[in-house]
Structures are given as structure tokens and as C-alpha cells.
Amino acid sequence: MQKGSMISKDLVLVTTAGGAVGKVWDISVTDNISYEISWTGTTLGVLKIEASISGVIWYEIPGIAWVHPAGSPGNILVNLSQQAYQYVRMTYTRTSGTGTISSWFATKTL
User: What is the phi/psi pair of residue 84, to 5°?
Assistant: First the structure.
């Protein structure tokens, strides 16, 4: 990967079902990653960023100070530096309410 950055929209969903799993990103050749997540409506649920080395078994990345959708519009920016994982993805588990979650993913190689 060349030095610089890449921005891509990751996940857009209407949260009327149980939740969603975002795109799997290969971060093996990047130094830094970030997610910008926003939500509208009255959705209530749990956001997670998960990591994997195999792409088969997924683990929640520890140490993220989350702001979860709690029934009113909101947003969060999550930055992760020097991660030693092969893959990452965002997940959302809906508890109640309706609305839309949008997520953008960016990487930067130094």
C-alpha cells in the first residue's frame, strides 16, 4: 500500500432487524485505522469493532470508550493505532427502536 490515506463508506443500514455486520477490512499493511459512526432515529443497541487474525474467529477490540446508540441521534469517532490484527469489522446489535446507522472507515499508512 502506498503512503497516504483511503476513505471508504463501510456500513449503512436501517436498524429494524436484529443488527448488522459491516464489511471486513484487511488492515495488515496499514498503520492507523479509524471509524466515524453516526446514527439517527430512536435506535438503541450496541456497537463493536471486532478484530481477527484468521478471518474466522472474531474478538471485540478492548479499550474503546464507546458511546452506544441510546434512543436519540448521536455519533462517535474511533481511532486505532498500530493494531497487530489482520482484519477488522464493525458490528451493531439492535435492542429496540428504529433509525439508520452510517459508518465510514479510513486507514492511513505512514
Answer: -100, 25
Residues pairing with 11 in the sheet: 103
Cα dihedral value 101, 49, 30, 100, nearest 10: 0
Contact indicator for 5, 110 with CB cutoff of 8 Å: no
Can you read off the three cell numbers belonging to residue 53? 487474525
The average pLDDT across 10-29 equals 74
Round to whole Å and give the CA distance between 110 and 105.
17
Alpha carbons 17 and 105: distance in angstroms, whole number: 23
Lookup: cell for 93:
446489535
* Cut 0.85: pTM above it: no
Looking at 8-12, 18-22, 31-35, 41-45, which range is the least confident one? 8-12
Q: What is the mean pLDDT of residues 88-101?
A: 87
